[in-house]
Amino acid sequence: MKKGNIFLSSQSVASMESALEQLGASLTALKNVANNIMPEVLILEGLKPAIEILINNINISGKLTAHLQIDNANEYLTTETQIILYRIVQELLDNVMEHAKASEVWIELSRQSDRFTLIVIDNGKGIDLSQLYIKGNGLAVVKAYATYLNGSIEIHNTSIKGCKVIVEGKCS
Question: In this structure, what DSSP letter does residue 131 have?
């Protein structure tokens, strides 16, 4: 078989086409990883649309039903704060999906004066409060993010057999 100006055996052509397909799949996977790290919509449109897409993807997956109540965070949060809050929401949702055995999660982001409050509540099995911030725990990362935002984190088991995480910080 002739490929361009080079003659290749049909086996070589098949191998080359297979390699190109694998390369295409690898590029798609890499693009997905990069998008999960820093979704383009977060930079272009802000926190609210980025979280809405995250929630929509979770709902489409069927792993969990996610509910969102968020005001227009783009108006009062710096880009850096929006990125960190996105990471916090992402980490908390990952924890709920991986550990909580929950069927639903509620996310609320609001502002009071110069402070924000992020609340994430699930209806899962609750959390062992003695294991909150051990090394390698996603909640330790969330606590570090909250501290960076001059804020705080509170974690409680709820009356609905789930977990409630409250992150508060400055809007700057």
Answer: G
**Range 131-136 average pLDDT:** 66
pLDDT above 70: residue 100: yes
Going 26 to 46 to 83 to 117, the CA torsion angle's sign is negative
DSSP state of 138: H
Query: Residue 166 is which amino acid?
Result: I
Measured between its terminal Cα atoms, the distance across the chain in Å is 64
pLDDT of residue 74: 72
Report the C-alpha gap between 137 and 120 in whole angstroms: 17
* The model's pTM: 0.76
Beta-strand pair 163-170/65-70: unpaired
Token pair listed for 153:
């984190």
Instruction: Give the total residue count for the chain.
Output: 172
Residues 6 or more apart whose CB falls under 8 angstroms from that of 156 comprise: 163, 164, 166
**Same-domain pairing of 106 and 124:** yes
Contact between residue 88 and residue 167 where contact means Cβ atoms under 8 Å apart:
yes
Task: With cut-offs at 50, 70 and 90, classify the pLDDT of residue 107.
Answer: very high
* Same domain for 82 and 164: yes
Number of structural domains, the chain?
Answer: 2
Claim to verify: residue 51 and residue 125 sit in the same structural domain: yes
